[in-house]
Each structure stands twice: as structure tokens, then as C-alpha cells.
Amino acid sequence: MLLIDGVSYRYRDAATAALQDVSLGIPAAAVYGLLGPNGAGKTTLISLLAGLLTVAIGRISVNGQLLAAVRAADPRAIALVPQDYAFYPMLSVAENLRFFAGTLGLKGGELQAQMDAAVAFGCLDQVVGKRAERLSGGLRRRLNLAIGLLGKPRLLLLDEPTVGVDPQSRHFLLDAIAALPAAGSTVIYTSHHMEEVEAICQKIAIIDQGRVLAEGTLEDILQSPEPFLELHLARPLPDAVAARYPAVATGRLKYRLKLPSTAALPRLLDELAAAGCEVCDLNLGQHNLEQVFMRLTKRSLRD
Predict the structure, then answer these.
(1) pLDDT for the residue numbered 264
(2) Can you list the positions of beta strands (E) in 141-210?
(3) Domain containing 160 — which CATH number?
(4) Does residue 270 sit in the same domain as residue 140?
């Protein structure tokens, strides 16, 4: 297990810390989702894990061994696949793979075996001789990921790996990433797409302003401490009803209300009927991940 224990980080001359007492438990051989709005501290945390920044306060360890020591003993143990394309556009797919395999110290049969495995993983066999700059957005993302896998990393850091791809390519990438833990890799996955995190992550953390707001399995995070009701009405919600059941507008004639209990629903429906407010649609149940995120951070993931 990867443990992040009490990690704080402040950039030089920054008014506030980028990370403040962050503690997370990331299980081995799983996909772990890291969510947070822009400026939340995700990039700083990923940079610390990748060794691009040095941990000054707190501790990051793998099975009791400091992560820095793990990285020093095996430079291939950790790989970062950044949001930006991390390959040479003027080189072919094969040339890029060979170059980056060489930087990892792969030689001879091992180099060729890992190149073949990367091509197979990304289904790049039809474009191995093609220059990277001529690939579609989806194929570029596949190449970016394939390069990250050349060293068979135990910890793979993925920063927005599906940005700018079509739905078919996104589906391919998600399936490929979801299969990585079966081969022994631990994946930390950041994304602006809630549905991606819900689909492939076994555990999730939500951070904002450098602090951890929630961590747990998807089921744990989606559990709501109080019942909530989503309503789509034919006319605006009466002010008296909105005040009685603290309401938030979520769209045109759409509202989210907080009920004291599920037993309060029949009374609310009677009040709406008496006010001539027809209910077009309602949903009483768990939060989805986006709703939980917005409740905790008070802002959108893209803010």
C-alpha cells in the first residue's frame, strides 16, 4: 500500500500552502481516483509522488519503505503520464518507443519485448511507422500511455489521460487502464470527467485548497447523511416551500431540496399540489459523484 502521511508543501514566496496535512491510503493493484478543482493541489501531489518535487513535511511510503528510496532502488518503479503529450512529434511511433525505452536502460531483447508489449497494449500496430504528429488525438493518447508503461511501473500516475479524445478512444483507454491492476500496477488517476472516475476507480479522494475533503470507496463517498430530493417542476418553486425545505436551484425549474426525513415527502408533495405546482420529475436517493463534489468544494470541477 502507498501511504501519504501528513504531507504539506508550500512553494517559495507563496502566500498559502499548496498541500496542507494530506493523508491518503492508496491500495496496491487498484485504480485510485484523485478529484479536485483547478488549484486544489492535485498537480503538486502528483509531482511529489513522481519525484519532481521533494517532500519536506510528512512522509510518503510504499509498504513501509520511503517512496524516494523505492525510486532510487528502481527508477522504473514509478511512471508519470502527463496531460501534455510527452513524445517527439517528428519521430514515428516506433522511434518514440525505442527512444524512451532506451532512456529507461532497456536493451536488446528486453527493449524489443517491452516495445512489442506497448504496441500491443495501445493497439498501435497499424501506425508504428507513422510520425506521431500525424496521429489522431486518440492515437496520440494511446502512444502517451504506452510510453508510460515501457518500464512496467509498479506505480503509474495518470494526469487527465483522456483529454481531447473521441468517445470511442475514451472507451478504449478506460478499458485499458482498468485492466492495469491485474498486471500488478497501482494507478493514480486524475480526471475532469466524473463518469470516468465512477467507472474505473476502486477508491477516490476529493481535495480542495490543499486539503482532503473526503476519501473512501465510491459507495462510502456517495452515502448521504440526510435525504435529498431533486425536483423538476412545471412552474417555479413557491418561496414558502423553498424556505421550509432549504432549496437550491440546479437548472431551469429544477431544484434540490433537503428533507428532514423521507417521511416528509408526502407532505411536500401535498404542499406543491395545493400551490398548483405540477411535478414533472423527482428523484429521492443517493448523491452522484458530481453532487458530492460540488457539496464539498462549493464549486465545479472545472472552476
Answers:
(1) 85
(2) 155-159, 186-190, 203-208
(3) 3.40.50.300
(4) no
pLDDT digit string, tens, across residues 188-240: 999 878 889 989 999 999 999 999 999 999 888 877 556 678 899 999 999 99
pLDDT band at 17 (very low <50, low <70, confident <90, very high): very high
C-alpha–C-alpha distance, residues 237 and 245, integer Å: 11
Q: Which three three-digit cell numbers place residue 124?
A: 498501435
| Residue 237: domain span | 228-285
How far is the C-alpha of 287 from the C-alpha of 293, rounded, in Å?
Answer: 10
Residues whose CB is less than 8 angstroms from the CB of residue 184 and which lie 6 or more positions away in sequence, other chains included: 29, 154
Residue 68's pLDDT is: 93
Closest CA to 217 of 206, 227, 209, 208: 206
How far apart CA 303 and CA 20 sit, in angstroms, is: 20
Residue with cell 487498484: 30
CA angle 173, 195, 83 (to 5 degrees): 50
Q: Is 297 exposed, middle or buried (0-12, 13-18, 19+ CB in 10 A)?
A: buried
C-alpha cell at position 156 = 503509474
How far are the Cα atoms of 48, 69, 176, 182, 239 from residue 154, in angstroms, in the given order?
16, 14, 16, 12, 56
Q: Of 207, 222, 237, which closes a domain?
A: 222
247, three cell numbers: 432549496
Mean of the pLDDT values across residues 121-133?
96
* Backbone torsions φ then ψ of 87, nearest 5 degrees: -150, 170
- Do residue 43 and residue 124 come from a single domain? yes
Which three cell numbers mark 22? 494530506
Note whether 54 and 143 are same-domain residues: yes
Say what the pLDDT of residue 53 is: 96
Residues 208, 241: one domain?
Answer: no
